[in-house]
Amino acid sequence: MPDDPHYTSERPSERPTVSVPRAGKRIGPPRMNLPRRLHAPGFVLLALIWAAWLWHLPQGGDMREWGISAQALAHGRWDTLLLHMFAHANILHIGMNSAVLAGFAPLLVLTMGGRDVVTGGPLGAAALRFYAFYLLAGLAGALLYVAINPGGVIPAVGASGAISGMIGFMSRLDGNGSLLPVTSRALARRIWDFVKANLILIAIFAIPFFLGGTGMLIAWEGHLGGFLFGLLFAGFFLPPGHAPRHG
């Protein structure tokens, strides 16, 4: 699409690029029955995401003004660096991201808080690490999206830069909760699983375009940026005293 040199606060005509993460095979430590309290930080994010979407629903659910793009930043819309993580294109988009976020959030809270949070230990520090990770992973996804599309006008919306960061974080963990070496074959297989899942997702949502219809463009750049952040910086979000084994 041609670039529009005049950015406006009105809704852009272009269809937004969306983020819908795919995890591939099960990753990280074995699943377990987690205490309900570990779900609370994730539910807080879900409440904010759904509140934002419902707020826009009377206007047709159009949240493109919250989308991140090079054009938006060039015209001073720095708030979109944060807002895009809470914006979604439609009910399918927000539903898919919500399901993945609800599944991964308690696992991250558990890992970031240590085993004592399961037995009733303080949850505050783990929750703060989780929220910081979510925001930084989403920011990493947004920055890579803008870096790859420096003249882009199409806004990207969706939480899955941050959610892909969660997938990257869990990909670094072995069955004992220790960090896998970056050069390990096990981690390479998980990275390849993530890539394959995203290629399949892109293909599925591209089919309507090739058939002459409409659909959603996938912001793969945001997925990649968030995933790499989680993969490379997972160790910084482990609880104090955690001694990760690198193999």
Overview of the molecule:
It is a single chain. The protein is mainly alpha-helical. It has a single domain, classed as Rhomboid-like (Rhomboid-like fold), CATH 1.20.1540. The protein is 51% helix and 2% strand. The protein contains 8 helices and 3 strands, in the order βαααααβααβα. The protein has helices at residues 40-56, 70-74, 80-83, 91-113, 124-148, 160-171, 185-210, 220-233, and strands at residues 17-18, 156-157, 217-218. Strands 2-1-3 form a 3-stranded parallel sheet. α1 packs antiparallel against α4 (91-113), α5 (124-148) crosses α8 (220-233) and α6 (160-171) runs parallel beside α8 (220-233). It is globular. Residues 1-14 have a biased composition (Basic and acidic residues). Belongs to the peptidase S54 family. Pfam families: Rhomboid.
Termini gap: 48 Å
Morphology:
globular
Number of strands: 3
- Name of the CATH architecture: Up-down Bundle
Mean pLDDT: 84
Q: Can you write the helix and strand succession as a string?
A: EHHHHHEHHEH
InterPro entries: Peptidase_S54_rhomboid_dom (IPR022764), Rhomboid-like_sf (IPR035952), Rhomboid_protease_S54 (IPR050925)
EC number: 3.4.21.-
Biased composition (Basic and acidic residues): 1-14
Main location: membrane
